[in-house]
Amino acid sequence: MSRWARTLTLESLLPKLDLLPYVGQRTSTYRFDLVDINTGYRREVHPFLDSVPTLSHDVGRTITRRLDNFVLDADESALVDVITSRIEPFMVLDGEDFPLGRYMYNNEIHIKISEGVTHSSSITDARHHDLNHRHGEISSGSLYDESFIVDQRISESFSQRATIVGGLLNAVAPRVQLVILALLADLPITVDIEATPFFTDSGWPAGTSRGFMVEQLATDGDYFSPWFGNDSKMHFIRSFDPATAIATFDLDSGSRVIQEKISRTNDLIDAPNTFVVISNGAEAQSSEIIGRYDVPSSAPHSIANRGFIIPFVENRQVNTIEQAKAVATNIGQRATIFERIELYTVPDPRHDGYDVLRWQGDNWLELAWSLPLIEGAAMQHVARKAYPT
Question: How many CB atoms within 10 Å of residue 232?
């Protein structure tokens, strides 16, 4: 194979980010915009270098993204309204802005100081900002993505149940996709959702967390867990097998991976190798097992390799055998008890949710990443191995 060969990927080749052999170095910075959601007013703010803001993404959390250690000086703290203010970070590279999402305050701590110098994170701003002017209250904030808006309790019961006519699903029965859109319709968010052929027969009483409801519906609709992405939209994508998917990023090419920080872990000893869905829905008899997914035989904890079954059993209100099988497969694909890898790369603002990484000839599904928002810091990635069938 030619040294210039490159694995087919979903992301277009960008020399300044992919660090091809002829790219010796790059220079980037980060910008932080403070946005008022009521007026649309936008201005740049400058968190301290002393406490580096860190952006993290983890599909195992209900609120997938967090922006921590966001510290502003007294002047810029006064501009923040924790109710209406949003922070939008960007990576700026060769004059191009790469958005990294939008975040709302979860908490804000005010700290009184009377002396000392704390440096702004913007060299340009330092020309106009008195770095010695630190008297008053600085603020230290922790911010969430706008899943916080979703993850609130409903004040009225919610149900859009399918109707059964003559033992068959009515043609106008609600698909999961439409139920999700109805559940989120009154929220000030933008939803990007893929189509699904599956219906739902679920309902919830007042007081139920909407985040819990969304997660249940996502599973019934054969979606991965939803997340708010770099474009600030809430995304629902259908589950897929990462072993057969085209990689989003090829980490085997370029010079992105920091070799000395690679570690592998696993929890395979008691990992389930069979995922079963039981339902008493339209086509199911009482307690009938109607959906099953076995991990591929190439997996080290498969039935073939282990010699016996460790099942994971879920009782779901699904209406067809096809849907039950899809839900069982979805649960199996979501399971994080697999062989995992942790590695560090140069920062890449294109990483979002459920990216497939090509690493040492294998596909890995990215579950989490963490990015200190300061030039020179490495980006951490956690991914689980995909096993081909």
Answer: 17
The string of pLDDT tens digits covering residues 7-32 is 667 666 676 777 666 555 677 899 99
- Where residue 86 sits, what CATH number does that domain have? 2.30.300
| Total number of domains constituting the chain | 3
Distance CA 35, CA 327 (A): 39
- CA 372-114-33 angle, to 5 degrees, is 35
- Cα-based distances in Å from 298 to 273, 360, 389: 11, 17, 6
Range of the domain at 75: 1-9+27-145+250-266+345-389
What average pLDDT does this structure show over 230-254? Answer: 91
CB-CB contact of 312 with 286 (8 Å): no
Compute how many other C-beta atoms are within 10 angstroms of the C-beta atom of residue 82: 13
Residue 290 exposed, middle or buried by CB count within 10 Å (0-12, 13-18, 19+):
buried
Question: What is the reported pLDDT for 20?
Answer: 63
- The full DSSP string for 256-310 is -EEEEEEEEE---TT--SEEEEE--STTPPTT-EEEEEEPPTTSTTSHHHHSS--
- The single residue listed with the structure tokens 């808006």 is 149
Asked if residue 240 belongs to a domain, the reply is: no
Pick the range with the lowest mean pLDDT from 53-57, 161-165, 376-380. Answer: 161-165
- Residue 18 domain-assigned? no
Query: Do 137 and 74 meet the contact criterion of CB atoms below 8 Å apart?
Result: yes
Alpha-carbon distances, residue 345 vs 121, 156, 377 (angstroms): 22, 46, 9
If DSSP states are collapsed to H, E and C, what string results for 308-355? CCCEEEEECCCCCHHHHHHHHHHHHHHCCCCCEEEEEECCCCCCCCCC
pLDDT tens digit sequence for 80-98: 999 999 999 999 998 899 9
CA distance 115 to 6: 54
Is residue 115 located within the same domain as residue 260?
A: yes
The reply to whether 47 and 121 lie within a common domain is yes
In whole angstroms, what separates CA 214 from the centre of its chain? 15
For residue 385, what is the DSSP state? E
Structure tokens at 68: 């921590």
Between 285 and 297, the higher pLDDT residue: 297
Helices and strands counted in the chain (H then E): 8, 24
The band of 113, judged by pLDDT with boundaries at 50, 70 and 90, is low
Predicted TM-score (pTM) above 0.85: no
